[in-house]
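hey can u check if this looks right to u? its 227 residues, i copy pasted from the old doc so theres a chance i mangled smth
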Amino acid sequence: MRESAGFRIRLINQSSVTRKEMAVVARAINKQLKRDVAPVWDVVVSVTNSTSPGVQCDATMIITDELPEGDGYLGYHDRDENGLPYGYVFRKVSEQYGENWTVTLSHEVLEMLMDPFANITARTTIRKKPAWVWYELSDPVQADTYTIDGVEVSDFVLPGYFMPGIGGSFLTPDLKPFSVRPGGYLGYETPAGEVEYIHGGKAATQRLQIKSKYGIGRGANLRRLDS
């Protein structure tokens, strides 16, 4: 992941988004990764629309309009039966829940980059108890967004966010470590292996309930923790 060739995520568009629009979104996210993410996280990463067998990628992100089952979750990243990172963004579902699908895509790409196998944690203390916080870059600030070349993208936390006494996100440099912005949430595990959350309002709670309902990503068995 830290090799000079970088970490490349293939975007597969199976939605009604046009090829031209997808190319614009991909360029904006690449700009975010190169300009905003790489300098602070010390990574080399890119996304590509190419489906050519000659283009080697480390992970896949699929964009579709909506789930066959009907109403559902916005998007997620996980690993398949072979242990390879993959993710989905459900465009119409994102918009139904008030989130631009480009924000969802940016969110999932950012988190797949830093924790492609959904298994990295940072140890801290929450409510006077040991906690292993998941390395999710956008969850704590998921309601905060900004625009790059007309494309809305997600905020993300900085490396210091996972370090006591430092903190910070791209849009909120003074964000306290292991805290959440309105609409965001933080997932972690206790020494007993239980999953708990700190959440920043109704929208965050709703998204957690959706993930729990479909048993996807980390902490599929939701245990609510009021902030």
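The first helix runs from residue 19 to 41.
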